[in-house]
Input
Amino acid sequence: MTQSILSEVYAADKSAGSPVSSSAISAILRRATLRRHDSAGQFIKASRPDLAQKEQREADILASFLPPLMSEADIDCILNEVIAETTLNGDPRRILGQVYKTFYSKVDKSNVDTEIVKRKAEALLLSI
Output
């Protein structure tokens, strides 16, 4: 397990030309955790509970090294601030892109669930 993650970190270091940031390492760990959760689900579908249990155990170990994700209430608060700062006239896609850009300049992307941010930003912009 650790060998594959170290390999990903080394590859990221090599492609960046310098050591990667801690947020990039967190992103690598989150992807590895998600892969193991997905694998566990596939093993359960294939009637291989032994392998599913192994993958789930590895995912739990990796998750213990990750900082917690930002709460939905905190995401809402920051999105409301960002939308209040943003000019809301023009193409809706451009506005949404501007909201994302401002939001992620304030928040480290590795500390939020991007799907929740996307869903909440779209809902907030539709309600305006």
